[in-house]
């Protein structure tokens, strides 16, 4: 692999990592902060992509961003409603919403499973025109991804350090203490899931516009990818301030996409990439556990060798 190919591979991984990193940040908020495993992420990602594409095709590329985020908020609200008001288990509510969103997404896309945006003005084409006469003319995709990631990280960090954000973090740590402190966990859970799904919708919108198309399965498996990226980021920068941890999960998204890109470069069949995602998740989850048990395994091995030596004597 020559240098130019490696640089191109790295840039592609960085662009996709930053865009999909918004979904990882959403999972960071819902899973790490709120302690809710939201399995509606796949459908919400596609919803943001579909709504953003429809609005952009209608001639409003800038409005596609808030529209996709608002669609994500609606998805998060329904998921939170099932959990907090109707007594549905958090995992089950995510599955229910994800299943329902398949039909909703088809309806948003006008009954089609594919929307083409080759001739549509998007935020990426607008950035390309803006940078046309600058040295960064060919880096418009990276510019949009960097701006979006930086803004979301900044907003998330600022939000989590507000009084409401601290209440959301406390809800994830100890909901019983939150109730005793006269904080309504129903409200904090709802706000947290709405905010998280807004980031997921934005991520889907940007990915669809960068690829110039929306396919009904564009979000399939994104929750696994986001979880793997979150755990990888936790391994790199899992301790420290909220800013450090937020940057860490975006870094994890980039590393995951880089592994994906390298796997594709070595002609790994596309159908194997889901297996790669699952293996990465297993390693990321079990790694800290196995690392903690390593001293005990070493002591057992040493004791076993000592016992064998004594018996031989």
Summarize the structure.
The chain is mostly helical.
Residues in helix, %:
over 70%
Which fold name is given in CATH as the topology? Answer: ABC transporter involved in vitamin B12 uptake, BtuC
Total domains, how many? 1
Distance between the termini: 56 Å
* Tally of contiguous helical segments: 12
Tell me the total number of β-strands: 2
Gyration radius (Cα, Å) is 22 Å
Approximately how much beta-strand content do the residues carry?
under 5%
The coarse silhouette is: globular
Low-confidence stretches: none
Structural commentary:
There is one protein chain. The chain is 77% helix and 2% strand. It has a two-stranded antiparallel sheet with strand order 1-2. Helix 1 packs across helix 10, helix 2 (41-57) runs parallel beside helix 4 (90-108) and helix 3 packs antiparallel against helix 4 (90-108). It has one domain: ABC transporter involved in vitamin B12 uptake, BtuC (Orthogonal Bundle). The protein is built from twelve helices and two strands. With 313 residues, it is mainly α.
């Amino acid at each position: 692999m020559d240098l130019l190919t490696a640089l191109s591979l790295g840039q592609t991984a960085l662009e996709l990592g930053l865009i999909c990193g918004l979904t990882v940040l959403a999972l960071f908020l819902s899973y790490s902060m709120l302690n809710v495993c939201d399995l509606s992420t796949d459908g919400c990602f596609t919803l943001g992509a579909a709504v953003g594409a429809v609005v952009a095709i209608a001639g409003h590329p800038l409005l596609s961003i808030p529209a996709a985020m608002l669609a994500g908020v609606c998805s998060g609200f329904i998921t939170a409603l099932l959990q907090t008001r109707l007594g549905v288990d958090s995992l089950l509510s995510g599955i229910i919403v994800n299943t329902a969103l398949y039909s909703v997404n088809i309806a948003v896309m006008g009954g089609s499973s594919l929307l083409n945006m080759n001739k549509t003005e998007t935020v990426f084409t607008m950035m390309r025109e803006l940078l046309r006469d600058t040295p960064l003319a060919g880096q418009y995709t990276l510019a949009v991804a960097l701006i979006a990631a930086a803004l979301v990280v900044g907003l998330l960090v600022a939000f989590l350090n507000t009084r409401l954000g601290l209440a959301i973090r406390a809800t994830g740590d100890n909901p019983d203490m939150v109730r005793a402190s006269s904080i309504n966990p129903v409200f904090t859970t709802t706000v947290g899931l709405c905010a998280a799904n807004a980031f997921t919708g934005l991520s889907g919108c940007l990915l669809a516009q960068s690829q110039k198309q929306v396919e009904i399965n564009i979000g399939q498996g994104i929750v696994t990818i986001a979880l793997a990226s979150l755990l990888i980021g936790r391994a790199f920068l899992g301790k420290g301030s909220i800013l450090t941890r937020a940057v860490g999960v975006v870094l994890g998204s980039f590393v995951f996409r880089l592994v994906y890109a390298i796997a594709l470069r070595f002609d790994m069949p596309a159908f194997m990439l889901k297996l790669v995602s699952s293996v990465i998740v297993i390693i990321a989850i079990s790694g800290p556990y196995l690392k903690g048990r390593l001293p005990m395994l070493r002591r057992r091995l040493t004791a076993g060798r000592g016992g064998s030596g004594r018996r031989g004597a």
